[in-house]
Amino acid sequence: MWVCSTLWRVRAAARQWRRLLPASGCHGPAASSYSASAEPARVRALVYGHHGDPAKVVELKNLELAAVGGSDVHVKMLAAPINPSDINMIQGNYGLLPELPAVGGNEGVAQVVAVGSNVTGLKPGDWVIPANAGLGTWRTEAVFSEEALIQVPSDIPLQSAATLGVNPCTAYRMLMDFEQLQPGDSVIQNASNSGVGQAVIQIAAALGLRTINVVRDRPDIQKLSDRLKSLGAEHVITEEELRRPEMKNFFKDMPQPRLALNCVGGKSSTELLRQLARGGTMVTYGGMAKQPVIASVSLLIFKDLKLRGFWLSQWKKDHSPDQFKELILTLCDLIRRGQLTAPACSQVPLQDYQSALEASMKPFVSSKQILTM
């Protein structure tokens, strides 16, 4: 996801960051929360002290693990992906920025090692994911407050659990919240091979919706098309094909989409708008092209199209923690039924983070980089 209009600092994430200090002995104002043992436990974490190119500003450091307080949970991270929002956050181009220095990563799955005396909802062995962004998941271990975590079933695949809290949630909410779609209706999206795009394809198929999936042309386009269709995509077309006049004949055999999902912006978003049915909605949730959405005046007037935006972090602010937990459980049910799988992933050991960061920023890379601890 791209730049939002107003940057706001994440106080909760900053507090979580202060619970882990550099092993060199830096001190902060809440010294009573740090481990008081003579030899505090060490953890490894990917830390950035200022914004910039992730390959240059992110460093692997040893940190001290805080003591477990009464409402705290000690977790061992199992796996954590590198998402576009993680990259944007490190670059300083995101709507949510933790105070620096910060541990990278907004998503991942961990296993509970120990809990404080006041913790009632979690126990050792449970799997958990972050309740909100900014927690800092690119580390081997951590101590978090119980309220910062959400339990997930441990009977789902590890990669699915590690990538559950951002992209599938975004996909599900966009499909459910903007148009009252019925089985047989169609949805069009760009960036269809992204993590959100792959989740949209699968969740839409589970809901009986038909998808038109737009991707950039590439040498292995047929391979990509086959893979997306194996997930449930009905049509896979390139940006160039979308612009051709012949597209007007495309909808003779299927209804025009009432919902368009835009993660690119620029010309790609303009073409999505052109394909929408009268009264349809285009939801923008990213801006990979770093170009503005340009909407034709005639389309807005004569087709009464609607332009909306979606940001999962804002959705969480507008809804209760229980509603987010319900969303997670709904997605877990789809995973158990085989209707939702993790995106294509490459597992990379934490110490090889440089290659993972570089791969995550290359064009035409369909495999999500997942750091393993």
Write up this protein:
This protein is of the alpha/beta class and 373 residues long. 29% of the residues lie in helices and 24% in strands. It has helices spanning 11-18, 54-57, 84-91, 158-162, 167-177, 195-206, 221-231, 239-242, 266-275, 297-302, 312-318, 321-336, 353-360; strands at residues 8-9, 21-22, 42-48, 58-64, 72-81, 96-97, 102-103, 109-115, 127-130, 141-145, 149-152, 186-189, 210-215, 235-238, 259-262, 281-284, 291-293, 306-309, 345-349, 368-372. Strands 5, 8, 9, 10, 11, 19 and 20 form a seven-stranded mixed β-sheet that branches. α13 links the parallel β19 and β20. α5 packs across α6 (195-206). Mean pLDDT is 90; it is low at 1-18 and 20-38. Residues 60-371 form the Enoyl reductase (ER) domain.
